[in-house]
Amino acid sequence: MPEPTTRERAQRIVESGWFRNGVIVLILINAVSLGMETYEDLFTAAPDVFAVTEGVFVGLFAAELALKVYAHGRSFFRDPWNWFDAIVVGIALVPSSAGFSVLRLLRILRILRLVSVVPQMRQIIGALFRSVPGMSTVIGLLLITVYTTAVLAEKLFEDASPEYFGDLHTSLYTLFTVLTTENWPDIADSVAEEHPWAPLFFVGYIVVTAFILLNLVIGVIVTALEEEVEAQRWQEDQELEQEQHEVVLDRLEALSEQVERLSRQVADLGGETGAGGAAPGK
After folding, report:
1. What are the residue ranges of helices labelled H in 15-79?
2. Exposure of 272 in the CB half-sphere (CA atoms within 13 A)
3. pTM tops 0.90, yes or no
4. Most confidently modeled of 121-130, 173-182, 267-276?
5. Nearest of 126, 124, 197 to residue 156 by alpha carbon
6. Of 147, 146, 168, whose CA–CA distance to 157 is shortest?
7. pLDDT tens-place string over residues 120-132
8. pLDDT tens, position by position, 18-46
9. What is the CATH number of domain 119-274?
10. Domains of the chain: which residue ranges?
11. How does pLDDT run across 70-83, given as a tens digit for each residue?
């Protein structure tokens, strides 16, 4: 077998489990370091330590990215997750001048690289994007329901409770609070004195929005996640079948070569036997 090239060796390294686990550990340590910077006493006590630590992390992440680019070549840029990693690492390389101070704050996004490194997290994000068409329909229905109910509640309860239903935007905020089922009895009690049937209004609203429509959103996401997992399993099955197909073809080729060799040996033996039998007759 020919010796693997340097690029093939680099590709084996970046696709290995120990390399991925090392990157995960590095991201987690960096997350702890960025969190410690939020403590003013620690940061002012040892600013040089944090500066050196930041430089080490940036250098390691840049080296990791460069190794992946070298290993995969142009195919590196075909994966959206690789673009995400490149942007996050590129933000970390921005000079820490005053003009780029806002961009420097975005280095906290390096923690989100866990999503691109861990395959299970990528599946969840993929499922969320897959569920956007169905989820947008359900969310649109939810917004229509909330808006309609807000207009209706403003007309019904404006005089009884102006602090909750004085105008449209106040009513929208109130009904969003009711949607979360947070302190909704207090809101219902504020209008129950003038409208004894008001609790039934809020109970029906909660049942429709919180229990039915929001659960529909969750159902759409769960369905998309199942489809994402099934698609991943199908791809793995296809790859396994391809490997098995190649193994069978290799074995058939080897058997064909053995049969061909045996045929040649039988033909050679037949020729030698014929020549030996013809000699006495001369």
Report:
1. 17-36, 40-45, 47-72
2. 6
3. no
4. 173-182
5. 197
6. 168
7. 888 788 788 888 8
8. 998 898 899 899 888 888 888 888 878 87
9. 1.10.287.70
10. 6-117, 119-274
11. 988 888 888 888 88
Q: What is the CA radius of gyration of the chain?
A: 34
Fold classified for 6-117:
Four Helix Bundle (Hemerythrin (Met), subunit A) (1.20.120)
| Share of residues in the chain with pLDDT > 70 (%) | 89
> Do residues 119 and 221 touch, judged by C-beta distance below 8 A?
no
- Residue 161 DSSP label: -
Show Cβ contacts of residue 150 under 8 Å, excluding neighbours closer than 6 positions: 168, 171, 172, 174, 175
Question: Any idea which residue has 């970046």 for tokens?
Answer: 14
Rounded (5°) CA angle 272-278-279: 95
Coil/strand/helix, residue 119: helix
Phi then psi for residue 160, to 5 deg, are -75, -35
The rounded distance, in Å, linking the Cα atoms of 141 and 147 is: 10
pLDDT in tens, 211-237: 998 888 888 888 888 877 777 677 767
Residue pointed to by tokens 């093939």: 8
User: Rounded to whole angstroms, how far apart are CA atoms 264 and 25?
Assistant: 61
- Phi, psi values for residue 281, rounded to 5°: -75, -15
Q: With bands split at pLDDT 50, 70 and 90, how would you rate the model's confidence at 173?
A: very high
Query: What are the contacts of 79-85 at 24+ separation with CB within 8 A?
Result: 81/116, 81/122, 82/116, 84/113, 84/116, 85/113, 85/116
